[in-house]
């Protein structure tokens, strides 16, 4: 059994799951494969772009890491996938469009939502075909700003009090602001939480960019650090 290392500290990307899943679906799902497929479906669709979001059977079958959890070998995993898809179809969680009966991997599956039902009607009426329309692209998994790890890498070990202060600062300002303040403190050779806190406090009171637009690249971050360094020198 692969050991789970735990959820990372800091803010992470969340996946939207409709409330009826918990009240109307979950109490009745008694098949592990169906449950895993349904949750996986929510996660995959969340990361897609496009008006109509769907997954082909082939998309699911090619997800090596996920399929590894569906069976001890490829044959078992393929069988488990088909069972899970049929269960979800029978329950009404998913909708299927068969575009190429000779190739089941081309079957398109939609969530049974208003957009999913509209997509299926458009296919059945000949107004739209997934293979001819814009492809639904998979967006990269967002990388969370882990200010706790960043603090340890640049300043030193975390204490419970500093971890709490970092979390409050992230909520008050932003993870990016906290990260930039930590970077300034490290570069100035002042690896102290009070120094980082003073940077954030000044940015919060006086405005970080003094009329400039929000930085779009590293050059603006360098300018912010230069301005703070000048202010800090004037206080010495």
Radius of gyration, taken over Cα atoms and rounded to an integer in Å: 25 Å
What is the rounded distance between the termini? 57 Å
What is the overall number of helices?
A: 11
Strand/helix succession: HHEHHHEEHHHHHH
Largest sheet, if any?
Answer: 3 strands, antiparallel
Beta strand %: under 5%
CATH architecture of the largest domain: Orthogonal Bundle
Fraction of residues in helices? 40-55%
Q: Specify the CATH class of the largest domain.
A: Mainly Alpha
Tally of extended strands?
A: 3
Secondary structural class: mainly alpha
Summarize this entry quickly.
The protein has two domains: 19-124, Orthogonal Bundle (Arc Repressor Mutant, subunit A); 147-235, Arc Repressor Mutant, subunit A (Orthogonal Bundle). Helix content is 54%, strand content 4%. It is built from eleven helices and three strands; from the N terminus they run H-H-E-H-H-H-E-E-H-H-H-H-H-H.
Ordered list of secondary-structure elements with their pairings:
Blueprint: H1 19-25, H2 32-46, E1 55-56, H3 57-61, H4 64-68, H5 74-91, E2 94-97, E3 108-111, H6 114-124, H7 147-154, H8 160-172, H9 175-187, H10 193-206, H11 218-235
Antiparallel strand pairs: 1-3, 2-3
How does this model look, in words?
- The protein has 236 residues and is mainly α.
- It has two domains: 19-124, Arc Repressor Mutant, subunit A (Orthogonal Bundle); 147-235, DnaD domain-like (Arc Repressor Mutant, subunit A), CATH 1.10.10.
- The protein has eleven helices and three strands.
- The protein has helices at residues 19-25, 32-46, 57-61, 64-68, 74-91, 114-124, 147-154, 160-172, 175-187, 193-206, 218-235; strands at residues 55-56, 94-97, 108-111.
- It has a three-stranded antiparallel beta sheet.
- Helix 2 (32-46) crosses helix 5 (74-91), helix 8 crosses helix 9 and helix 9 packs across helix 10 (193-206).
- The model is unreliable at 210-220 (pLDDT under 50).
